[in-house]
């Protein structure tokens, strides 16, 4: 499997297509955005349902509050905005109006991680998983590809629970065939090392596993699309059945996927060594997304190297 030669897709397109399809079936579905109709890929939704898209302007706190009010009035609001602004500017409203109040709002963090590339750390959203994990009562889902994105949108529309969907902009290949909230997907079995990846890193983990096999290292790949609640049983099984765990995320390792997995592993009856791949508490230099992922050691080669090194410790 080669990440560089496979056809790749923008998950925002799958998100928008599925949202429109669902809205045709259910008039309760509405979209709320922060002057981001284009970047949230809601142009088609606006054309189909002009009375069901609410653009609050650049006012993220209001956007989340409006979404909570709509949810409590019987609507199914998809609240969409660039992830750094949705989660950073409106964190209090996400905590109080959505999670604490258990308002069934679908928060859609668009273009997360370092998808905005050259726009720099102000537009990067590498902290979102960390600060949202600290909020009780909020599901966190990071789809790995277009099919999983569509499935997550369908699930969220029907779930009637507060949830954050991290909708990627950086193009990825299709690698999944199912989605179950709260359950890690076993995409490749292995006996030496487990790679727990999420979002854009899942396809790269699969490529790393294929390359590591040529070096005699057997890698299990888990797609941890649900960050909260974490599939602790899958992590415990990995600690019990393989000799080490590598986590890979397009996010800061301070409080994100790696931290969540480590908290389970450290209290496991069978603790194992770990390596956490991600951004280690620093801001990024200027550059496009490909450059930044390489800069922070988030390529298939980096995942493979970490797994092979851990297998020989």
TrEMBL record:
Carries keyword Iron-sulfur? no
Quote the InterPro entries the UniProt record gives.
PDH/Transketolase, THDP-binding, Transketo_C/PFOR_II, Transketolase-like_Pyr-bd, Transketolase_C
Keywords, comma-separated and alphabetical: Thiamine pyrophosphate
List the Gene Ontology MF annotations in alphabetical order: magnesium ion binding
Which ranges carry the Transketolase-like pyrimidine-binding domain? 9-174
Answer whether the UniProt record assigns the keyword Repressor to this protein.
no
Cofactor names: thiamine diphosphate
Give the family, as the similarity comment puts it: Belongs to the transketolase family.
The protein depicted here goes by the name Transketolase
Its taxonomic placement starts with:
Bacteria, Bacillati, Actinomycetota, Actinomycetes, Micromonosporales
